[in-house]
Model the fold of this input.
Amino acid sequence: MTILISGGTVVTASGTLDADVLVAGEKIAAVLGRAVTGDADPKAPASPAAVAADRVIDATGKYVLPGGIDVHTHMEMPFGGTSSVDTFETGTRAAAWGGTTTIVDFAVQAKGTSLLATLDKWHAKADGNCAIDYGFHMIVSDVNDTTLKEMDACIAAGVNSFKMFMAYPGVFYATDGEILLAMQQAARSGATVMMHAENGIAIDQLVAQALAAGRTDPVNHGLTRPPELEGEATGRAITLAKVANCPLYIVHLSARQALEAVAEARDTGQNVFAETCPQYLYLSLDDLARPDFEGAKFVASPPLRTKDHLDSLWRGLRTNDLSVVSTDHCPFCFKDQKELGRGDFSKIPNGMPGVEHRMDLLHAGVAAGQLTLPRWVEVASTTPARMFGLYPRKGVIAAGSDADIVIYDPAARQTLSATTHHMNVDYSAYEGLEVTGQVVTTLSRGRPVIDDGAYQGKPGDGAFLPRGLNQYLL
Ligand SMILES: [Zn+2]
Done:
């Protein structure tokens, strides 16, 4: 099967190009530059290949992008006695609707279990169920001699990024000593440690004080996790990584103080990288303070910050101190799940839905002048591919790469809403927000997944992606 995507503007991390894209089977066969307007008869076939293609998709007026890569999702993840509500099937389908063609999800080691058994468990959840390709990171929550040895086996199995937590004492929390040991182990192979950087020990004291004083509303989730405690933990993680000589990737960075710590480390040439998420670019503590328990919809950790942090994060994206935008998609329904925390904000499941709208919300940033078009593609696709060892198979429109391609209409208008989204969750964090731009077609390895306004894929189309090492190491 060959497909010619003709007439569109190819957008890559390095610029835009008026070109047609020929897909043969699962791969991109050629990127064919077009004559500049006026040089040739516009009705003539764009290239000889047009004649040979089984199907021609007219992308006139549309962008042709490498498929989005969301390196931070939590499908069907256990948390606080409940589980995030998107399965690998529903979550990857929603991702495809939004122009994301690869996710990297987190396998979660429970204390007392092995990393390899954990990996098997996550394969059992995902294999045969995904609509798009997927990989895994490993959450290490129990550091011991066995676990440390198993990290090498995970790397051999294509999982070479290990997430640790300075937050959530008693659950995922690791001490500084445990973090150092895991970093030293990762460093031997060039693997990356990913860090949830918040000072969970101090936060737990603030949470206890708030509850004792009767401050139980959702806004207190944000007030008890001040940005200084994200900044402090980020700096500490950077120091530990420096001592261990280990590549470090700060996940879901939300606070200016944390960004400053990352920028300072990067200026010295340390292998420190960071991502942020759309919710930290668009939403704020004001949303956590919405009345009638509505704020619970916005409970995630780190919390939404005051509005003065937002501009810093957009700037960080432009200066590359923030290199990636992922979603931390971890949806819990308002009804019955978020409601577990009525009267006690600390019992609200932590997480927000978002896998479907990352590309759109970042394109809204392009429309608002916050990002250039190539930078949009870079932070949403190309850099995630290089950071997590998927490039050039993913993250680029080039001959030989997987034909993960999104045809995007930059002029379409859409209103984000729970009534129209495809995520398996009963609310939208962006209910009623009108944005410019929308996915028209999503191809995953040459197969139309979203096409003609409908989902055309099926569970099991997506394949597991063993990943290589971070390609940005200095
Ligand atoms: Zn997360």
About this structure: The CA atoms of residues 16 and 153 lie 41 Å apart. The longest helix spans residues 227-244. The radius of gyration is 22 Å. The pocket of zinc ion is lined by residues 72, 74, 328, 330 (CB under 6 Å).
